[in-house]
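Onboarding guide, step 5: your first structure request.
Type a short instruction followed by the sequence, for example:

Predict the 3D structure of this protein.
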Amino acid sequence: MPTHTMRAVRLHEHGGPDVLRYDEVPIPEPGPGEVLVRVYAAGVNPPDWYLRDGLTTMPGETESTVGLPVIPGTDMSGVVEAVAADVDGLAVGDEVFGLLRFPSFNGSAYAEYVAAPASDLARKPAGIDHVHAAGAPMAGLTAWQFLIEVGHDHASPFQEARHRPTALDADTTVLINGAAGGVGHFALQLAKWKGARVIAVASGAHESFLRELGADQFIDYTKSRPEELVHDIDLVLDTVGGPDSKRFL
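The system replies with C-alpha cells like these:
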C-alpha cells in the first residue's frame, strides 16, 4: 500500500539548532505550474537560520507570511516524481535542482518531497551530483548578481554616487575576499569566465583549490594583509563584510 506521508524537518518554535524536529507530514500535491520532486539533497543558506532564529518577514515586506510549524529551505536537488497537467518541459524521472519560491520563507526544501514551481527548476547537469547541485543555487545567484547581472539598482545609504557596475574583461583585475566560500568560489569562476585577472584572498589551506579554479594570484590573509600588497585593481568583491571591509577602499 503506497504511503502518503513523508519525513520533513520543521520548526515548531524559534531558537537554536535544537528546535529543528523530524516530523511525519503529508506529501504535498503539486498545484498548477508545479512538479513534485523527491528531494535527494537540500542546501543550507542564511535565510534558513534567520527563519529559525525568528525572522519571519522578508526585507521590504510589511508583515509576516510564516505560520508555525514551517518547513525551511530553498535550495534543493532531486528527481521529478509527478508533473501538473499545465507543465511543459519537465517529465517524471528528470533530475532537477533549483532555488524555490525565493524571496520568501516558503521553499519547504527540508523534506523528502517538495511541490516546486517548474519555473524555479533547471535540469541538473549530469556531471554534478545532487549534493553539489543543492549547494549551488543561492550562492551561485548571489555571485551572478554581484558580477554578471547586477541584482540591484537602488541608491546606497553609504555613498552619494550612484552604483556603477564594473565591466569584466581581460583588462579587469578583481580581488575576491573570502574566495573559498560559497559565494566567493563561484565569483572567482565567473570572473575568470569573463576573462578577468583574479586575486583570491583566503586562508592558506585553500590555495590549491583556488588555483585549480583559476586564481591568478593567491593571498593568505593569515600571513599578509591584502590591502598592503595589492594596488590599482578595478573591483573588490568582499564576501566577508563587517567593519573591516572599509580597508579595501
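Each response can be followed by summary notes, for example: The radius of gyration is 20 Å.
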